[in-house]
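fyi for ur records
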Amino acid sequence: MRWSKPLTPLALATTLAGCESIFGSGDEEPITRLPRALTQSEQDLIVASNRFGFNLLREVSARDSSSNIFLSPLSASMALGMTMNGARGETFTGMRSTLGFGAMEPAQINASYRSLIDLLLGLDGNVDMRLANSIWVDQRFPLHPAFVESSLQHFDARVTALDFANPASANTINGWVDQGTNGKIKTIIDGIDAGVVMYLINAVYFKGSWTQEFDPARTSPAPFHRADGGQHSVQMMFLRDAKVRSVMNDQVQMVDLAYGRGAFSMTLVLPPNGQPLRQWAAGVTDEKWQTWVAQLRDTEMDVLLPRFRLEYDEVLNKTLQALGMGTAFDEGAADFGGMSPLGADLFITNVKQKTFLEVNEKGTEAAAATSVEMGVTSGPPTFIANRPFLVAIRERHSGTILFVGLIGDPRSP
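which gave:
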């Protein structure tokens, strides 16, 4: 398994906006700029990913009344981006639009992902940022070599054929996710249903220590006011005279807390007083986000932040369909001809994401796994002669066999 250390597009926008700031103290110099300028394609990719992230958050929030929602747009985009490489026609167009890529061509999208990963590999040695992709396919199901090569070249994907009829295959897939998220997400699938022929999975893991750590001795119980008007006690961390970047006005209260040498950060945003979070967040767009980030300025202030831990999971089917990629889920209309010779029979059956987040006095640990499950149409069973087979030529009504043989190497002479 190869691990990459890219910066998430959302964090990158914050980093670029605050590149002139110096974070924290210590023997190592803070990271104040990227090692090279971003290409236009890379900038377009970041904008697309951020736009997709806010759209995803808005749709999930509208459908899920849970107190907490925690998503990884990067993980979802990576898993769906791999899948999109096999899409054709309206299926591709819908997926590209949903992921926010506009009119970008596949080669441009893939090259931008690849170059951005390479650019940011190991950006901050004080932050543990891992990214891994994998494709798990039923050993009886064929894939186009070009699709496999693209997955390897652009996504560093591990491509593995398994016997999906063997219950142990689900354990193998879950074991990869467990390792890829450093044990924070144990399983992404409960088992492999009949008709499922492939999983395209992304795993993301992040662990960063605050540039300025909270003092555990200052952590104490404090009330947290819920949206329903009630309140409960939380363990509130306290950081006095913190050197942060912030913007505080009648539109937004925003603070940026750095990790490590300052390349990565956690951005916290409070809506204006009196506005419910969900109602306000539904109107947050990438354009608004960029405006707020551009207004961040170096500040000294006290910061109070709850210490908490959460796990979240969501099936994203309806959300993604609402955002415009319904064709990919349509058993009769989906076209994944670029993925397999049997691509016309393929469609997405499930997109599932699981996430983990823990915030404490030392820093933050977060993980995500996104699985794209591919199924085949419920038409006639598929017979794939992709291993040695017996062949016979016969007269059907009498049962007379005219020719019979065993084919172990069907290559033409």
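DSSP finds ten helices and 13 strands in the chain. thats all i got for now
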